[in-house]
């Protein structure tokens, strides 16, 4: 899946230019001297989140005039539920995330958080209520602790330690020579894909945003990392609304709802067992993946 945080690798490169802490996407735009495509309307109010309900209401989108990418996509993620989006390559999964983070405005329909249209509120308040676990996490040449603290720069060591435990990173960190103070990155330890993703989970836990997006990596992880990530995601989804862009369907068998996207349309929606019983798109994707795993 296309990275929604495409500037992140570049960000690692320009990071040395930065003196202060950086935790939000506005800083990224400023840093990259890139204008966001959308602008706040004059005196846009801040988003006020009480429950953390996310709703896509007949959302339509096209990048160019000649091709519809999302066609009347509607779904509701109730507070503290886990909703997964699956679909073959090019179905429009990343586009849904880009619209949620308001990298673009919709071409039609609305995206609502707690009944407020996200196009009418300030972007900084929107992004403050969204946490993201991206496919590929950028780590800086600092300690693991400082890398996690990017989730909320003012967090205490105790809060970082708690996030480490909740992200199931404590066992790994205990095995390191200097624990959470071990340096990572070019001059230090190299983390595996699964460990990096758990650092991103710890960051998201620390940020404590009401809605968390988990953009699952396409590459498979070793089974212990995968287990730890699944456990962490399950724990987080008890207290947060969680949107998962899934590639490995085994990740989402316990989701409250699964949305199947095909060529920009929602073609099926339901729980894992119901979708299997329906013998439609999802059942087909599941069978293909089972065969692949067995091979
Ligand atoms: P994958 O799993 O392969 O990442 P996806 O379901 O996330 O796919 P999207 O990345 O949302 O799919 O892309 C949906 C469609 O939009 C694709 O046909 C893609 O080529 C097109 N698309 C994506 N980004 C752009 C863009 N910036 N400009 C024009 N078309 C785009």
UniProtKB/TrEMBL annotation:
Keyword Glycosyltransferase among record annotations: no
ABC transporter domain residues: 54-288
Domain of life: Bacteria
Parts of the chain that traverse the membrane: 1-15
Keywords annotated in UniProt: ATP-binding, Membrane, Nucleotide-binding, Transmembrane, Transmembrane helix
UniProt-annotated location(s): Cell membrane
Gene Ontology molecular function, alphabetical: ATP binding
Protein's recorded name: ABC transporter ATP-binding protein/permease
